[in-house]
Specification:
With about 100 residues, the protein is of the alpha+beta class. It has one domain: Alpha-Beta Complex (Fumarylacetoacetate hydrolase, domain 2). It has two helices and four strands, in the order αββαββ. The chain has a four-stranded antiparallel sheet, with no helix packed on it. Strand 3 and strand 4 form a beta hairpin. The longest helix has 11 residues. The termini are far apart.
């Protein structure tokens, strides 16, 4: 049943791309393929890795799939933007100004 749910969710969750910019640094970009091929492919790997260490996920646990682009340090006074493409019909951009 779990495999069926993951397979169904994988069909509903599209592969998408993200890009981050913080001028004057070069922009970074990546796709969800960096997460073992598809974001939901991380779940079985995580379950197995946790099980090898005696830990089980429980119903209601929140799972972060991790990042698929290099981390960018937050520096005071700088502006950052992150753009997602492929999640919605139109790209989504999020901006942040660090004090």
């Amino acid at each position: 049943m779990r495999r069926l749910l993951l397979a169904t969710a994988a069909l509903l969750l599209p592969a998408f791309a993200a890009g981050a910019a913080c001028p004057p640094d070069p922009a970074v970009a990546a796709t969800t393929g960096a997460l073992l091929g598809h974001p939901l492919d991380v779940i079985p790997w995580l379950v197995g890795d946790l099980a090898r260490n005696g830990i089980r996920l429980k119903a209601g646990d929140i799972v972060s799939l991790g990042g698929f682009a290099p981390s960018v340090p937050a520096v005071g006074g700088r502006s950052y933007s992150l753009r997602y493409e492929g999640l919605l019909p139109q790209p989504v951009t999020i901006g942040l100004q660090v004090r």
